[in-house]
Design a protein that fits this description.
alpha+beta, Arc Repressor Mutant, subunit A, Multidrug-efflux Transporter 1 Regulator Bmrr, Chain A, eight-stranded antiparallel β-sheet, about 40% helix, about 25% strand
Length: about 280
């Protein structure tokens, strides 16, 4: 139940600061994970991004205030983080389908998004094939791009499609290391827990000891313990494992997510599987 309590504690922090600055770094610290993992975990469990949840809650509370107090629209705009009454009005109308002024009238239809709460749910219908690996340090070479966490599900597939068209995977395969437990063409999710921004680096790469050709980069990662999950199918299978990692495995496994990269390993087609490597530490 510690996991559930920490996630609900993070939500309490967000709700307590909903009319001010919501610091995702602080929320992730309460949840005992990195900013990257916290935002990903939230999105998979709640089926809505963290920033969208905050936006919906602010506009829900703004509607309550409009109906129950004489507060001015300009004051509400400033209170809930909008730069101008016009920006607030546009956001309000996009969600509620009406203007803030009209929302004061009885009979106006409005939308309310309640505060979220987390509960543990043990499904156990389908097995998760995994193993724990102690892997030595390694280096990856590849192309790195900064990605907004909230936009990752849209941006990353486009990155892979562009890389395939430009022949990146063939160039990476030529410089791969001969033997390392981390195999295949990699999608490395790095740096999401450092700083207070809402971005991470996604590196399409290969494990390699060679120096990177331009415009590629080289990243070194330390020895660590990893939970390695098998995923059937293509990227969709990896996506399903991500969701089950956060909703089923982490709450009950006895492990915490380490503040290290997560690695999507796309193996040769003849293996009929891919792998997700997530760095972990024992509780």
């Amino acid at each position: 139940m510690d996991w559930v309590e920490r996630m609900n504690g993070a939500i309490s922090y967000i709700e307590d600061h909903i009319a001010g600055d919501v610091d995702y770094e602080t929320a992730s610290q309460i949840a005992c994970c990195s900013v990257y993992h916290f935002q990903r975990m939230f999105s998979f469990i709640a089926d809505v991004s963290l920033s969208e949840y905050v936006r919906r809650r602010r506009l829900t509370l703004a509607a309550f205030e409009l109906q129950n107090s004489p507060v001015k629209v300009i004051d509400l705009a400033l209170k809930y983080g909008y730069e101008s009454p016009e920006a607030f009005t546009r956001a309000f109308q996009n969600m509620h389908g009406t203007t803030p002024t009209a929302a004061r009238k009885n009979g106006t239809k409005l939308k309310a998004y309640p505060r979220i709460s987390f509960q543990i749910s043990i499904k156990g219908v389908a097995e998760m094939n995994y193993r724990i690996e102690d892997a030595p340090g390694f280096s990856v070479v590849g192309l790195q791009q900064c990605v907004d966490t909230d936009q990752a599900f849209r941006i990353v597939p486009d990155m892979w499609a562009n890389a395939a068209r430009e022949g990146l995977f063939e160039r990476l395969w030529e410089i791969r290391a001969d033997a390392h437990p981390v195999r295949g063409i990699l999608g490395v999710c790095a740096d999401g827990g450092f700083g207070t921004n809402e971005q991470f680096h996604y590196i399409m790469s290969i494990v390699s000891g060679q120096e990177p050709p331009e415009p590629m980069i080289k990243r070194d990662f330390p020895e660590a313990t990893w939970a390695v999950f098998e995923a059937e199918g293509g990227p969709e299978g990896i996506g399903e494992i991500w969701k089950r990692l956060y909703t089923e495995w982490v709450p009950t496994s006895g492990y915490e997510l380490a503040d290290l990269p997560a690695i999507e390993c796309y193996l040769p087609p003849e293996e009929n599987k891919n792998e997700l490597w997530v760095a972990v530490v024992k509780k």
